[in-house]
Every structure is written in C-alpha cells, then in structure tokens.
Write the structure tokens for this entry.
Amino acid sequence: GTESCDWASMLLRMYEMFCEKNNFHCEVIEEQKGEEAGLKSATIKITGDYVYGYLKNESGVHRLVRISPFDSGGRRHTSFASVSVIPEYNKDIDIDIKESDLKIDSAVRITHLPTKTVVTCQNERSQLKNKEQALKILKNKLYQKERLRLEQEKNNLKGTISAIDFGSQIRNYVLEPYK
C-alpha cells in the first residue's frame, strides 16, 4: 500500500545518501512509482570499491514503525520493504542464457523461463540499450541464484538450515515510542 511505497522510497534515499557519503556511484536503472506516493519497486546499480561487501548484509526485509502521514486518524502503522543486493557476476564464470529460454515482452521486460526470473530496465532512451541493460541484470540475478544454490548445498552438508521468511526482518526502524 501507500505506506510501504513511501517506506521503499525512504530506503532508496537512504542508500543514495550512503553512496554520496562514501563516494560510490549510484544509478537508478528502473523504478515503478506508487499510486499515491513513493515507489512500488526500484532497481539501482551502485559501483565503487568493496561496495558489495558493504551492502550484502542489507538483503532482507526492512520494517518501519511510525505514525502515518497518510492516516487522518494519526495511528501508528508498520510497513515492510524488501531489499535484494545482487553482485555483478564474475566475468570469469560463464552464465549461458539461451535465447529460447527468454520471453521478451518488450525491450524493457525480459523473463527467464526456466527460473521465472523477470527483469526490467527503462532508464535508457534506446530500446536496444534497455534490452542490453536488462540482460546484464538478468545475468547478475542468475549468478546470484547459482551462488545461493551452492551456499545452500554447503549449509545442507553442515546441517544448518535457516528459513528466511517475510516475517523475519533483518532490521527495524521504530520512529514512534512503544506504548
């Protein structure tokens, strides 16, 4: 809803400010505006030395508790936003994407059929450049999925399996006192 869209835009701004402070380059690849306020989703690319190391632990669900500016009753609301941090894939590892595995709805929306992974890009003026950027993002996401699969295999061998559910947020931001 509107609360979560507003929270997502606040998180995006926090990451942009982090990038400014640490001299990282932040580029908005795609964003989908909320109906009343904020963002439904956004994809950003952050570049700089060791940036993945700094941000990899930001992946997960972020929870905000505050008095809603959108609620005329002035009630306290809880909002959630999910963050995914995906590294650029290592060019030494070959990520082979077959053309037959892709469903291209437009130059800005590509679906990888075997994994049901959907990517979009609409920040370029050229449809061809949007498609190229979307394919790069798709390769990065497939690379991340493969890394997670290998990590899960390793965890299964160790016997440590931990579920990551929507209800188990990684961080809470409480802007109103507890009652």
Remarks:
- DSSP finds three helices and eight strands in the chain.
